[in-house]
Amino acid sequence: MNRTLKILSVAILLVPGVLFGISWAQYRVGGWLAESCPVFHTQLQLCDTGGTSLAWVSALLFHMLLFVMVLATLLTVAERKWSAFTQDRIGPERARIGPAWMRKHSFGGLPHVAADALKMIFKENTRPKAADRDRILFWLGPVLAFAPVFALAAVIPFGPTVPVNGYAISAQVANPNFGLLYVLAIASLAVYGTSLAGWASNSKFALLGGVRAASQMISYEVALGLSLVGMMVAFSTVQLPVLIGSAAAGTGQAQYLWQGSVLGLDFGVPAWGIFLQPLGFLLFFTAAFAETKRAPFDVPEGESEIIGYFLEYSGMKFGTFMISEFIEVVVLSALITAIFLGGWHLGFAGDVALAQGLGKSHPVLYGAFCGAVFAMKVVFLCWFQLIVRWTFPRFRYDQIMTLGWKVLLPLGLFNLFASAALVLLDPSLHWLAVAGLLEIAVLAGLTLTRKAPKSGSGHEAAGHGTPDVHALPAAAASAHH
Amino acid sequence: MAYYQATKDPTTDIRERTYVPELLHGLAVTIRHFMRNLFFPRDTNTDVLNRTGTSQITTVSYPEEQVTYPPGYRGLHRLVPREDGKPRCVACYLCATICPAQCIHIEAGEYETTDASADSRVIEKYPTSFVIDELRCIVCGLCVEACPKDAIRMDTGRHTPSEYTRSGFVWDIPRLLEGPPVNHPSDPWLKRPGSERPAHAHLEKHARIGEGLVPLKLPRPAHPVRTEVTSGPVPVTKFLRD
Question: Are A440 and A340 in contact (CB under 8 A)?
């Protein structure tokens, strides 16, 4: 019980509290920056398309450098710890730090972050002799793998635009009117880093990894972009803040398609992307996995066969590849949150009431609350991506290509045309939502029902349909038979 | 992943052909494991199969928790002492001869015939040095079977502990000799049935034998002196003398 309470308090109090604090500090510092440097501020714009002031510096500091980077760093240990829990192991816990009373606790393996970072930084930075003639490209490899992925986070709105000290402060570094197109363009740049790393290493295995990464990422770019067009069509925009919308104004994903009220709090079906475009969500999620080059799409890395495009890298250069992979996980989680999961909106239980009450009286607190909701959704999706990585076995290479070109691409096209037709028929999105909810219902029905056991072959039924084979003694006993 | 076969095989179910429901089932399994192991404390019972509780972690966190060996486990060998604390070994070389790993090295000493106790000696030889290289030993137990004097046994129930140097694994008499003293009726220094001489005469003679000849260091020193190996294969004889 003690452990349960500890974990619950961390998950319910500490993590949301820290995220709330980051968001609150960002709004406050942004307001202070806008106030102290009013030259950069053109006019007060109280709309969700973002402000135009020096406040973007605060978003850069608090959301990109603090939230995204720290979360990505923590994910390196979380990957090991969480994979251990899915596999009935303990995971890393031996790194201890600080005075004697601190050394008695493992702190969930968190000191391993420091240990890993120190190891990466102080390891010898070697370069193979064969890579000498391409030393600039060799050096550019990790840079080009890291930079585009990190730059993706610039257009992600980590919270609503709220008035602070009379200035409209947004939680977004930049809000270009080509928002999602920027994401797709920059994301496809990341392939240069991996290809260059594979080429400049002058190693056959690294080259194989680089070529695999290039073909895989280019193939899945198509499905990645196509799966988002449905959402762009539904909301007639490519700007992420407009996609997310405003609960107070009832726009974007914050609007309710069907609304009721319980105890003065509003409930209903919000126009979230996952309800309008469940197929698009699945396609995007799959393609995003291929873009991160993580299992089940990890043939560019291919630990068991070719080590991958970063084979010849050591020290912090390898660490840069590693951290850019986790940053990609975080950024894609944030994208999915913004596009499909309603961004910073709860979507139920008084979302509108909160926006009209707290949003008017204490806008900074409301903004920080929304920022915490957004960040919690991001953390959840990061966890989900890691769980997926530790659940599914890897694809073979031809299967990756088949899935990308023969399954995801036709499905994406079908989804696009069907969604566009539904939006054309009913611009209020209700028909689109009905189609989406039907898709979810079919999927849930297929998942919750079981395949009828084949009569006459007990082995098949026992091997496939038994839902609970997890009690360890039982599993061990059956293994003895 | 077998999605290609699953999607093409007409005998499969629609749940398998559409692929996603089966993926969700797999996710449910791992998430269930994750939640149980995350939220609930681990049972530290070293008998892993009999662990109870909601958490399903099977790790035994060595060395804080150590699995008890099964009753049949015998472990490392030891030299058996006599009543006077010296090894029962008579340096017959049978163990060193039969050892398939050739890890036992014995140097025998003989009691001088001019020794004060020479006229009364009952055994001729003793080991001036008895060394086992634990890195070579394969714990086969043939030395125990070969020993005619019950001088070496495998009943400690321990495995080889870790050391920082290779020389730390070369064990000599002080390190090997342990356990309660053992006597057998057939021991030559004991009074035999029908003997005319008093019992203490047997023991006295025995106690004088080899006095000052075997430099036994008992009890074991707190910090055993180790010879540092710098490079290359080192013959085992390097460690035989101080």
Answer: no
Average pLDDT of span A455-476: 44
Residue A474 has pLDDT above 80, yes or no: no
B218 part of contact set with chain A, CB < 8 Å: no
B172 DSSP 8-state letter: -
A383: its two tokens: 């966890």
Contact A391 B51 (CB under 8 A): no
Please tell me which of the candidates A88, A449, A476 has its beta carbon nearest to residue B57. A88
Residues of B in contact with A296 (CB under 8 A): 1
Distance CA B111, CA B113 (A): 6
Residues near A429 by beta carbon (within 8 Å), at least 6 away in sequence: A234, A257, A271, A276, A423
pLDDT at B233: 52
Helix (H) or strand (E) holding A70: helix A69-86
Considering only CB atoms, A88 lies closest to which of B21, B31, B58, namely: B58
Chain B: residue nearest A81 by CA?
B38
Residue A26 corresponds to which amino acid?
Answer: Q
Task: Tell me: cis bond preceding B219? Omega within 30 of 0 counts.
Answer: yes
Give B117 or A37, the one with higher predicted confidence. Answer: A37
**Does B229 have pLDDT greater than 50?**
no
Query: At residue A377, does pLDDT exceed 50?
Result: yes
Whether the complex's predicted ipTM surpasses the cut of 0.90: no
Cβ atoms A326, A76 nearer than 8 A: yes
Q: Does the CB of A281 have a partner CB in chain B at under 8 Å?
A: no
**Interchain pair B37, A82: CB under 8 A:** no
Helix axes A315-340, A111-122, angle to 10 degrees: 130
Q: Tell me, yes or no, if B5 comes closer than 8 A to chain A by beta carbon.
A: no
Please give the helix or strand (H or E) that residue A21 lies within, else none.
helix A15-36
For the whole prediction, is pTM greater than 0.90?
Answer: no
Give residue B200's pLDDT band: very low, low, confident or very high (50, 70, 90): low
CB distance from B33 to chain A under 8 Å?
Answer: yes
- Segment B105-131 shows an average pLDDT of 73
Name the closest residue on chain A to residue B21, using Cα atoms.
Answer: A447
CA–CA dist A408, A283 (Å, integer): 6
Q: Is the pLDDT of residue B149 over 50?
A: yes
What is the Cα–Cα distance from B122 to B120, expressed in whole angstroms?
6
Query: How far does A457 lie from chain B, in Å, by closest CA?
Result: 14
By C-alpha distance, the chain A residue nearest B16 is A451
Residue A206 predicted with pLDDT over 70? yes
With CB atoms and an 8 Å threshold, state whether B29 touches A82. no
pLDDT grade for B176, boundaries at 50, 70 and 90: very high
pLDDT at B223 over 60: no
When CB atoms are compared, the residue of A4, A282, A471 closest to B39 is A4
What whole-number distance in Å separates Cα of residue A29 and Cα of residue A17?
A: 18
For the stretch A206-211, contacts whose Cβ atoms lie closer than 8 Å and that sit 24 or more positions apart, written own/partner, are A206/A306, A206/A307, A206/A308, A206/A309, A206/A310, A206/A311, A206/A312, A208/A306, A209/A300, A209/A301, A209/A302, A209/A306, A209/A307, A209/A308, A209/A309, A209/A310, A209/A311, A210/A300, A210/A309
Checking if the pLDDT of B221 tops 50, the result is: no
- Largest distance between two CA atoms of chain A: 81
Contact A392 B23 (CB under 8 A): yes
What is the average per-residue pLDDT within B203-207? 48
pLDDT the model gives residue A79: 92
Query: Would you state the structure tokens that stand for residue A275, as one six-digit string?
Result: 């309800």
Q: Nearest to residue A174, comparing CAs of A14, A259, A55?
A: A55
How many residues in total does chain A contain? 481
pLDDT exceeds cutoff 80 at B206: no
